[in-house]
Amino acid sequence: MNAPAFASTLPAAALAKAATIRLMIFDVDGVLTDGGLFYGEDGEAFKRFNALDGHGIKMMQQYGTAAAIITARQSPYVLRRARDLGIAHVFQGIHDKRQAFEQLLQQVQLTPQDCGYLGDDIIDLPVLTRVGFKACVANGHREVKSRSDYVTQASGGHGAVREICDLVLAAQGNYEAALAPYLA
Protein backbone atom coordinates (compact mmCIF):
# COMPACT_ATOMS: atom_id res chain seq x y z
CA MET A 1 0.00 0.00 0.00
CA ASN A 2 1.27 3.51 -0.78
CA ALA A 3 2.33 5.80 2.04
CA PRO A 4 0.04 8.77 2.71
CA ALA A 5 1.19 12.10 1.27
CA PHE A 6 1.90 13.62 4.69
CA ALA A 7 4.43 10.82 5.42
CA SER A 8 6.83 12.34 2.89
CA THR A 9 7.18 15.37 5.18
CA LEU A 10 8.20 13.25 8.17
CA PRO A 11 11.80 12.41 9.07
CA ALA A 12 12.75 9.01 7.59
CA ALA A 13 14.58 7.99 10.77
CA ALA A 14 11.49 8.66 12.91
CA LEU A 15 9.30 6.67 10.51
CA ALA A 16 11.76 3.77 10.55
CA LYS A 17 11.77 3.66 14.35
CA ALA A 18 7.97 4.02 14.60
CA ALA A 19 7.54 1.19 12.09
CA THR A 20 8.86 -1.36 14.57
CA ILE A 21 6.99 -0.49 17.76
CA ARG A 22 4.20 -2.62 19.18
CA LEU A 23 3.29 -0.44 22.17
CA MET A 24 3.00 3.36 22.37
CA ILE A 25 3.18 4.81 25.87
CA PHE A 26 1.75 8.21 26.74
CA ASP A 27 2.23 10.62 29.60
CA VAL A 28 -0.96 12.46 30.60
CA ASP A 29 -0.43 16.03 31.84
CA GLY A 30 1.00 18.07 28.98
CA VAL A 31 0.55 15.21 26.48
CA LEU A 32 -2.99 13.80 26.61
CA THR A 33 -4.02 17.12 28.17
CA ASP A 34 -2.70 20.65 27.73
CA GLY A 35 -1.11 20.42 31.17
CA GLY A 36 -3.58 22.78 32.80
CA LEU A 37 -5.13 21.67 36.08
CA PHE A 38 -8.59 22.86 37.04
CA TYR A 39 -9.37 22.51 40.75
CA GLY A 40 -12.90 22.20 42.09
CA GLU A 41 -14.07 23.20 45.55
CA ASP A 42 -13.18 19.78 46.95
CA GLY A 43 -9.64 20.10 45.59
CA GLU A 44 -10.08 17.54 42.82
CA ALA A 45 -8.23 18.36 39.61
CA PHE A 46 -10.22 18.17 36.38
CA LYS A 47 -8.63 17.32 33.06
CA ARG A 48 -9.57 18.19 29.47
CA PHE A 49 -8.85 15.55 26.83
CA ASN A 50 -8.82 15.99 23.06
CA ALA A 51 -11.31 13.89 21.03
CA LEU A 52 -8.99 13.80 17.99
CA ASP A 53 -6.25 12.31 20.15
CA GLY A 54 -8.66 9.69 21.46
CA HIS A 55 -9.77 8.58 18.03
CA GLY A 56 -6.15 8.34 16.92
CA ILE A 57 -5.40 6.01 19.85
CA LYS A 58 -8.38 3.84 18.97
CA MET A 59 -7.31 3.56 15.32
CA MET A 60 -3.70 2.85 16.23
CA GLN A 61 -4.78 0.06 18.57
CA GLN A 62 -7.18 -1.33 15.97
CA TYR A 63 -4.22 -1.79 13.63
CA GLY A 64 -2.01 -3.59 16.11
CA THR A 65 -0.09 -1.05 18.17
CA ALA A 66 -1.23 -1.14 21.80
CA ALA A 67 -1.35 1.94 24.03
CA ALA A 68 -0.40 2.45 27.67
CA ILE A 69 -0.31 5.35 30.12
CA ILE A 70 2.33 6.19 32.72
CA THR A 71 1.61 9.35 34.71
CA ALA A 72 2.88 10.94 37.91
CA ARG A 73 -0.55 12.17 39.00
CA GLN A 74 -3.48 10.08 40.24
CA SER A 75 -6.91 10.86 38.82
CA PRO A 76 -10.19 9.01 38.31
CA TYR A 77 -10.54 10.96 35.06
CA VAL A 78 -7.47 9.25 33.61
CA LEU A 79 -8.94 5.84 34.40
CA ARG A 80 -12.23 6.86 32.80
CA ARG A 81 -10.51 8.13 29.65
CA ALA A 82 -8.34 5.02 29.43
CA ARG A 83 -11.41 2.80 29.75
CA ASP A 84 -13.21 4.80 27.03
CA LEU A 85 -10.22 4.31 24.71
CA GLY A 86 -9.61 0.64 25.52
CA ILE A 87 -6.22 1.28 27.12
CA ALA A 88 -5.60 -1.69 29.40
CA HIS A 89 -2.29 -0.65 30.97
CA VAL A 90 -2.50 2.45 33.15
CA PHE A 91 0.08 3.39 35.77
CA GLN A 92 -0.86 6.42 37.93
CA GLY A 93 0.80 8.16 40.85
CA ILE A 94 4.16 7.02 39.47
CA HIS A 95 7.08 9.29 40.24
CA ASP A 96 9.67 6.69 39.22
CA LYS A 97 8.46 6.07 35.69
CA ARG A 98 11.37 3.71 35.03
CA GLN A 99 9.97 1.26 37.61
CA ALA A 100 6.48 1.39 36.05
CA PHE A 101 8.03 0.91 32.61
CA GLU A 102 9.87 -2.23 33.76
CA GLN A 103 6.64 -3.57 35.24
CA LEU A 104 4.77 -2.80 32.02
CA LEU A 105 7.40 -4.59 29.93
CA GLN A 106 6.98 -7.69 32.07
CA GLN A 107 3.19 -7.54 31.75
CA VAL A 108 3.17 -7.23 27.96
CA GLN A 109 6.33 -9.29 27.39
CA LEU A 110 8.01 -6.74 25.13
CA THR A 111 11.48 -5.21 25.01
CA PRO A 112 12.16 -1.48 25.34
CA GLN A 113 12.89 -1.36 21.58
CA ASP A 114 9.33 -2.61 20.91
CA CYS A 115 7.94 0.54 22.57
CA GLY A 116 7.46 4.20 21.79
CA TYR A 117 6.97 7.01 24.28
CA LEU A 118 5.41 10.48 23.98
CA GLY A 119 6.33 12.85 26.80
CA ASP A 120 6.83 16.50 27.58
CA ASP A 121 8.93 16.99 30.70
CA ILE A 122 12.11 15.72 32.35
CA ILE A 123 10.17 13.26 34.53
CA ASP A 124 9.60 11.36 31.25
CA LEU A 125 13.31 10.96 30.44
CA PRO A 126 13.88 7.68 32.34
CA VAL A 127 11.42 5.96 29.98
CA LEU A 128 11.91 8.08 26.86
CA THR A 129 15.65 7.42 26.73
CA ARG A 130 15.09 3.63 26.79
CA VAL A 131 12.42 3.08 24.13
CA GLY A 132 12.79 2.42 20.41
CA PHE A 133 10.78 5.48 19.30
CA LYS A 134 11.07 8.71 21.29
CA ALA A 135 8.67 11.62 20.81
CA CYS A 136 7.96 14.95 22.47
CA VAL A 137 5.09 17.40 22.13
CA ALA A 138 5.78 20.79 20.53
CA ASN A 139 5.52 22.64 23.83
CA GLY A 140 7.66 20.12 25.74
CA HIS A 141 10.81 20.83 27.71
CA ARG A 142 13.98 21.40 25.66
CA GLU A 143 15.76 18.44 27.29
CA VAL A 144 13.00 16.07 26.15
CA LYS A 145 12.91 17.58 22.67
CA SER A 146 16.69 17.20 22.27
CA ARG A 147 16.48 13.47 23.03
CA SER A 148 13.49 12.73 20.79
CA ASP A 149 13.30 11.16 17.36
CA TYR A 150 10.28 13.31 16.58
CA VAL A 151 8.82 16.54 17.98
CA THR A 152 5.18 17.09 17.10
CA GLN A 153 3.87 20.19 15.38
CA ALA A 154 0.87 20.23 17.73
CA SER A 155 1.04 21.01 21.43
CA GLY A 156 0.06 18.62 24.19
CA GLY A 157 -3.71 18.30 24.53
CA HIS A 158 -4.18 19.92 21.12
CA GLY A 159 -3.60 17.08 18.68
CA ALA A 160 -0.04 15.97 19.48
CA VAL A 161 -1.19 12.46 20.38
CA ARG A 162 -3.19 12.19 17.15
CA GLU A 163 -0.14 13.33 15.21
CA ILE A 164 1.90 10.51 16.76
CA CYS A 165 -0.84 7.92 16.18
CA ASP A 166 -1.08 8.96 12.52
CA LEU A 167 2.71 8.77 12.23
CA VAL A 168 2.74 5.25 13.71
CA LEU A 169 -0.08 4.15 11.41
CA ALA A 170 1.74 5.58 8.38
CA ALA A 171 5.10 4.10 9.39
CA GLN A 172 3.54 0.67 9.75
CA GLY A 173 1.66 0.92 6.46
CA ASN A 174 -1.77 1.07 8.09
CA TYR A 175 -2.80 4.71 7.66
CA GLU A 176 -4.76 4.28 4.42
CA ALA A 177 -6.54 1.17 5.78
CA ALA A 178 -7.46 3.07 8.95
CA LEU A 179 -8.83 5.92 6.84
CA ALA A 180 -10.71 3.74 4.31
CA PRO A 181 -13.90 3.12 6.35
CA TYR A 182 -14.46 6.89 6.53
CA LEU A 183 -14.10 7.34 2.76
CA ALA A 184 -16.41 4.51 1.68
TrEMBL record:
A Pfam family: Hydrolase_3
Keyword Magnesium included in the entry's annotation: yes
Obligatory cofactor(s): Mg(2+)
Molecular function in Gene Ontology: hydrolase activity
The family this protein is said to belong to: Belongs to the KdsC family.
CDD domains, sorted: HAD_KDO-like
Protein name per its UniProtKB record: HAD family hydrolase
Coiled coil: none
UniProt keywords, alphabetically: Hydrolase, Magnesium, Metal-binding
Subunit structure: Homotetramer.
Entry keyword rRNA processing: no
